C-alpha cells in the first residue's frame, strides 16, 4: 500500500505489552510495526517467511523504505475510531503469499471474458489467473501497490524457481477438464 487513504495510524493495547503501541488500522484490523526494509527483494523474502509462520501482515511504502506491520489479533484501540474515519477507509484486497508449490496447483481455466483458456493457480477452491511473471522484486511490489490501490478482487503472489507470479482472482473461472 502506498496511500494513506487505505489505512489509519493509531495506538493499540496488546496483551503482551504494558504500554500501548503504534499501529495501523485497516479494514477493522490492527497491525503493529515490525520493521522498515529498504530493498524490495528483502521485503518479499521477509513477507514470505512471515507468511510461512502464519503471520498476516501489511506492507506500506514510505520514503525511507517499506514498512512491515504484523496483525495483532488481540489488539484493542486506545481510543475508539471516529465513525467518519472508519467509514472513509477503502477496503483493500487480500494478497496471499505462496512460497511453496504445495500451496497451489497449476491449471488451465476458462473465464467468461476470454475465448482461450488461461494459465492459473488453484488455491483451495479458488482460481487465480497468472497476470505477470517476473524475476524483478521491485516490479512485484509496484504491481501489488497498484492492485491494492484499485481495490480489485483478492490476488496472490507465488514464488518458484526464481520467478514471482502475480495472480488475479477469477471468481467465475472454470477448470478445463
Quick summary:
With 177 residues, the protein is an alpha+beta fold.
Helices and strands in order:
Layout: E1 8-13, E2 21-26, E3 29-37, H1 40-52, E4 57-62, E5 65-71, E6 76-77, H2 83-88, E7 95-98, E8 105-110, E9 118-123, E10 126-134, H3 137-150, E11 155-160, E12 163-169, E13 174-175
Parallel strand pairs: 7-11
Antiparallel strand pairs: 1-2, 1-6, 2-3, 3-5, 4-5, 8-9, 8-13, 9-10, 10-12, 11-12
What this model shows, in words?
A 7-stranded mixed sheet has the order 7-11-12-10-9-8-13, with helices on one face. The model is unreliable at 84-91 (pLDDT under 50). The protein has helices spanning 40-52, 83-88, 137-150; strands at residues 8-13, 21-26, 29-37, 57-62, 65-71, 76-77, 95-98, 105-110, 118-123, 126-134, 155-160, 163-169, 174-175. It contains 3 helices and 13 strands, in the order βββαβββαββββαβββ.
Please give the alpha-carbon distance between the first and last residues.
Answer: 37 Å
The total count of helices amounts to 3
- For the secondary structure, the number of strands is 13
Strand content: 35-45%
* Helix content bin: 10-25%
Strand order of the largest sheet: 7-11-12-10-9-8-13
Low-confidence stretches: 84-91
Oligomeric description of these chains: single chain
Mean pLDDT figure: 85
- Characterize the overall form: elongated
Major sheet: 7 strands, mixed
Which H/E pattern describes the elements? Answer: EEEHEEEHEEEEHEEE
Radius of gyration based on Cα positions:
17 Å
Query: Structural class, please?
Result: alpha+beta
Amino acid at each position: 500500500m502506498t496511500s494513506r487513504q487505505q489505512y489509519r495510524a493509531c495506538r493499540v493495547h496488546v496483551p503482551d505489552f504494558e504500554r500501548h503501541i503504534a499501529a495501523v488500522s485497516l479494514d477493522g484490523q490492527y497491525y503493529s510495526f515490525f520493521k522498515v526494509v529498504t530493498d524490495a527483494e528483502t521485503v518479499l523474502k521477509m513477507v514470505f517467511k512471515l507468511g510461512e509462520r502464519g503471520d498476516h501482515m501489511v506492507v506500506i511504502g514510505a520514503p525511507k523504505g517499506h514498512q512491515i506491520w504484523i496483525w495483532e489479533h488481540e489488539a484493542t484501540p486506545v481510543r475508539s475510531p471516529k465513525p467518519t474515519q472508519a467509514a472513509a477507509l477503502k477496503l483493500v484486497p487480500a494478497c496471499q503469499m505462496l512460497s511453496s508449490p504445495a500451496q497451489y496447483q497449476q491449471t488451465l481455466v476458462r473465464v467468461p471474458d476470454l475465448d482461450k483458456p488461461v494459465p492459473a493457480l488453484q488455491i483451495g477452491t479458488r482460481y487465480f489467473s497468472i497476470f505477470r511473471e517476473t524475476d524483478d522484486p521491485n516490479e512485484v511490489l509496484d504491481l501489488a501497490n497498484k492492485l491494492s490501490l484499485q481495490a480489485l478482487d483478492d490476488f496472490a503472489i507465488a514464488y518458484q524457481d526464481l520467478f514471482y507470479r502475480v495472480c488475479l482472482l477469477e471468481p467465475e473461472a472454470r477448470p478445463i477438464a
